[in-house]
# Entry
Amino acid sequence: MKISKIFSAMMAGVVSVVMLAIPVNADEGYDDGNPVFALDKAQTYTVEAGKKNDIVFFIKNISDNDSKSTLITAIDEGGKLGITGDNITSLAIQSERYTRFKVTLDVPANTLSGKYPLKLEFVAVNSNGVISEQELTADIIVKSNVVRNALSVSGYKISNNNVREGNIFDVDVTVKNGSGVDIKNARVELTSLDGRKFAMNKGVPYVISDFKKDEEKTFKFTLIACSGIESLRESIAVECSYYLDDADEESLQKSEGVVTVACLPKNSSGGDDKIFAPNIIIKSYDFGADYVTGGKTFPLNVVITNTSNISAIKNLKVTVNGASGSGDKGIAFSPANSSNSFFFAYLAQGAETEINLDMLTRADASPDSYPIEITFDYEYTTSDGTEKASPVTETITIPVQQEDRFEVNSIDLPPECMVGEEVPVSCTFVNKGKSSVYNVEVELIGDTIMTSQQKLYIGNVDSGKEEYYDATFSVMEPGDFRGTVVVRYEDANGNLKEIEQDFEGYAMEMIFDEPVYDDGYIEDMPEEQGGFPLWAKILLIAGGIIGGVAIAVVVVIIIVKKKKANDALLLEDDEDY
# Structure
C-alpha cells in the first residue's frame, strides 16, 4: 500500500511541485491473521446487589489485524449476576483501537458480597473474511448488605427452672433474621436430643419457617428430661440453616446457638434427691452495640436470675472483672468511674435482677473478642437454715474493634487537559487508626477515562503510616470528565472495606499545529524570516524520508540561485542611487 503526499513551494514567483511517494509497510506481506481482543486491565467492575448496574467494558484490539465485524456476547455462567436487556452487540474494531461494550446487570438482592465471573465471547471476521472466536472473563465485584449465617438464636425461655429426670418442659427458642434479606424455608432444629439427657416428648425437633428481613420468631419445643443429666447446667444445641438461593446448594448458610437448661441431677447413692444450691445464671447482657471501640467507655447491662423454685438466695455479691484474652492479648476491660462489686441482700426463687456499670476498653487492645468474668458469691436457704454456696463464675465475651481511620487525602490533577494526552493524578492515604490495615490496593476508574496502568498493590499499612499513589490517564471524549480513586483494604477484623475519592476536570479537543485538509494537502504557510524558507525545509524533510540526496542538492542549488538573483537586484538598486 502506498500513500502519496504532495508538497508545494513558492520559489521566486514560480510554483514548483514535488510528488513524494512514501511507502508504508512496503516490505511487509499481506497479513491475513485474526484480531486479538483484551480488556483494559486497569478497570474493575463493581456492582450493588438488589439494584440495576450498568458496566462499560473497554475492549482493545491488540493485534495488527482489523476486525470488519465483531459479535460480542456477555454470558453469566454462574447465574449470579442477572444480565438484563441487551447483552450482545456487533461492531467493527480496527487494529490497536478501543471500543466500548455496555452490559446491564440486575444482581439479585440475596447475592453475597464477592467476585463473580462474567464471560465475554467474541466472534470476529477479519479483513480476509476469516472467522475467529475468543473468550475473555471479567471478575464482577458485588457489594451486598447480605450477611452470612445471620439467622441466629436471640433468646430462649425454659418453662421449668429446675429440670430433673422425668420432667416434661417447654423450650421457647427465639430466632432473629439479621441477614439483610427475606429468608424462605429456614430450618430451626434442636440437634443434641439423643435421648441420653433430653428427648422430644412430642413432635419433631425442628421447624420450617419463612422470615422477613429483621424479623424475630419464637418456636416452642416440648422435651422430656432423661437419666443422663449430670450437671446443674446442661446445654442443648440449636442449628439455624437456610439457602440464599433454593436452587443453589452452595448458598447454604448455617449458624449455631446454645440453650442452657438449669437441672437437678440425682445424687450418686440413688436415694432421695438432694437440694442443691440455687442455680444463678446470666439471663442476658447488653453492651449497647455490635462491638466496642478501643479507648472508649461503654455501658454494660447484665440480667441475672435465680433459677431455683425452691431456695432463695441471700447475701449475694456480684463481682465484674476483665479477663485475659486469647494468647498474650491481656485484659481488655476495666470498670470506669464505679466499683466492680454489687451487693444484694435477697433474691427470691425464680426472681431476677440486673447490674449496670460503665466499662473502659483498653486503648491499644488488638481487635478480637475479650472475656469479662462475673463471679457470684452467695448463701441460700435450706430446710435446715442457711448454707454457703460455692462461688460461681460466668464468662461473657465482647468484641473489640479499633476505630477505622484509614483516610484518602485530596487528589491532585491539572484542571484542564487535552483529549488523548496523558494526565497525571496523585493522592496520599494515611492510617490514622491504632491497628494496621491489610491487603491495600488502589486503582483508578471512570467511564470516559482510560489508563494503561494496572491496580497498585500496596500491601499492609501500619498505624500512623502514609502511602502515595501516582498514576496517569487519558480522556477519551471532550468536555467534563469524572473519575474515582478506589482504595480497597481489609481492617483488623478481616472485613473488606472500600474508600472512594472522586475527582473531575475538563478535556479540550486536541489542536494540531498544522491544519490538514481531507484531500491530503497541507495548507501553504508563509516563509519564515531568515534562514531557510519554509518550503525549503519541507523539501529537505521529504528528501530525508525517501533518502533522496538529489532533492537536497536541488534545494541547495535553488537557494544559491535565488541568493544570487537577490544580490543582483540589490546591486541594481545601488546603481540607481
The mean pLDDT is 77.
